[in-house]
Amino acid sequence: MALFKKQSKIGRDGLSAETMTKGARLIAAAQPKNPVSEQFRTLRTNIDFASVAKGDVKTLLISSALPSEGKSTITSNLAVVYAQQGKKVLLVDADLRRPTVAVTFGINDNHGLTNYLADANSDAQAIIHTTNMATLDVITSGPVPPNPAELLGSGRMTALISALRNKYDIVIFDVPPFLMVTDAQVLMSKMDGVAVVVSGGKTTKGALQRTSEILKISEAPVLGFVYNDQNQKKSSSSGYGYGYGYGYGETKSK
Ligand SMILES: Nc1ncnc2c1ncn2[C@@H]1O[C@H](COP(=O)(O)OP(=O)(O)OP(=O)(O)O)[C@@H](O)[C@H]1O
Ligand SMILES: [Mg+2]
What we know:
The protein is α/β, with parallel strands linked by helices. The protein is 35% helix and 15% strand. The chain has 10 helices and 7 strands. The protein has helices spanning 18-21, 27-30, 35-54, 71-84, 101-104, 113-118, 148-152, 155-167, 183-188, 205-217, and strands at 59-64, 89-93, 128-130, 136-139, 170-174, 193-200, 222-229. It has a 7-stranded mixed beta sheet, with helices on both faces. α3 crosses α4 (71-84). Residues 1-6, 234-243 and 248-254 have low confidence and may be disordered. The structure holds adenosine-5'-triphosphate and magnesium ion (MG).
């Protein structure tokens, strides 16, 4: 166990559905003084440093090789710590297959990204939901479509990303894993920066190698790696495991 005292249940498919049904645990919002929240702030600082080196990173995609490696937990907490800093932040649930953002932020209106992408007459503003943090907005996934990669690769998605990057200080995208489907790859070329979550205990060497090849071939603007220790045994005095170690690996330019 690492970040959380209670281990998440693993389904028969080997995946955790916890963040889809209960939402990601927003420790950065609930316990800003917890050492884990401090780790999220460190991640924010590292991204800001990488951003200075690369030019302004306003659109950031976070993925990992495989499912259940902590992408949604990290993207949502990262969005929170950026908002706590007063930045105008948008979190986009571009994981149209295993969405979490609506339930994480308690948004009942199911109108989201897929509604916008599938309807040429729809308005982008209608899918932007506010949250209880003044500077944090979210776009939920909307109903699961039959053709996620096609929608994410559409010209309409490209236009939406351009419009959003002008409205926010940072737009963070939660996407499916690199090795399962092409969705992350399709979106990568439209991003200023890509961060790769590596999970202690889950990400295998082979999976990481294949992911590195994909990133190289796609000439992805990789900022670095985020180490998520889902294995750590230690618990902090607050009852939370102290599991996130963020190592920003080599910075590769496009
Ligand atoms: N450092 C950690 N320590 C303990 N549990 C963790 C840690 N990071 C994530 N988890 C748990 O692991 C499970 C999977 O996390 P999460 O849903 O964020 O991963 P994901 O990569 O977004 O998954 P998916 O591929 O389904 O989108 C959740 O139950 C989450 O609470
Ligand atoms: Mg997820």
